[in-house]
Amino acid sequence: MEVQNSTSGIGRYWDFLFIELADPRTNDWPLIKSPMPGLTIIGLYLYFINSWGPRFMKDRKPFQFKNTLIVYNFLQVLVSVYLFTEGMNGGWLRHYSWRCQPVDTSTTTFGMREARGCYVYFIAKLTELLDTVFFVLRKKDNQVSFLHLYHHTVMPMISWGCTKYFPGGHGTFIGVINSFVHIVMYFYYMLAAMGPEFQKYLWWKHWITNLQMIQFGMAFLHSAQLLYTDCGYPRWSVCFTMPNAIFFYMLFNDFYKKSYKKKGKAGKANANGKIQNSKSNGHITHDINHNVTDTKPSENKKEN
């Protein structure tokens, strides 16, 4: 009897958490009703990245995937363009309030448009797990950092929660600016995948990290408005969005310092040493390092 009561209690709690609290417009969409499919995908992803994949590739040559990566990154650009334009035209350039925007829970054209946008964003975050899969299959294990894994693991869960419970409103601002960043980022990766003849156009890679840090600052400030403005959007969401924005900013800032500032200092020291050595021989050597062999620090390094 006690076991039955306990089981029925868990069932009621499950129904309350995943049915009653959910937005009825999106709750029956694929992968949304229960958290288990998404968690299973993420679990398999982590198992492949940390265990099975490296063992599978141990005695194998790295795959090239040049054409595959070009197509993959091009498709990611298209999806990001769609999400950005949908977010701006569907709300943020029209009737949305930049201070506080509630979720439109209706089945009107605008209400369903923002709900579908949130769902596509969630699916996009799942497809981006392939970034890391390509790393492993190409033996770019040094790219599988804590920052990379944390970002690719957390974002699908966040977007799932937003799609299930709050598909629209204030929180979509983060997805819109993130989609803009991804337009730039995946366009860069597509060019990098095309080969060395395009690498001379990739001098601006460090600006991608700057852009990513700017988005987290914007996300923090935009979310903070909920602390003193009430429009019906859940204020408790800032307990997650604001600390997460700070954490992401710190991780990307640390990556930026390690990848670019230290590299820049090392390059200057190396150049000074060459100049001094050349002066002693009566010549000055002009050493220009375009760093063309390292085109993707935080995502897919492309094969030539």
Automatic annotation (TrEMBL):
Any keyword Lipid biosynthesis?
yes
Q: How does it sit in the membrane?
A: Multi-pass membrane protein
The record's listing under Pfam families reads: ELO
Q: Where is it mainly found?
A: membrane
One GO BP annotation of this record: sphingolipid biosynthetic process
In alphabetical order, the GO MF annotations are: fatty acid elongase activity
Transmembrane intervals: 31-48, 69-85, 173-195, 207-227, 233-252
Which reaction does this chain catalyze?
Answer: a very-long-chain acyl-CoA + malonyl-CoA + H(+) = a very-long-chain 3-oxoacyl-CoA + CO2 + CoA
The places in or outside the cell where this protein is found are: Membrane
Identify the stretch(es) annotated as Disordered. Answer: 267-304
Q: Tell me where on the tree of life, at the top rank, the source sits.
A: Eukaryota
What EC number is given for this enzyme?
2.3.1.199
* Key words of the record: Fatty acid biosynthesis, Fatty acid metabolism, Lipid biosynthesis, Lipid metabolism, Membrane, Transferase, Transmembrane, Transmembrane helix
- Signal peptide per UniProt: none
- Entry's Gene Ontology cellular component terms: endoplasmic reticulum membrane
EC main class here is: transferase
Q: Which family does it belong to?
A: Belongs to the ELO family.
| Annotated protein name in UniProt | Elongation of very long chain fatty acids protein
Q: Organism, per UniProt?
A: Clunio marinus
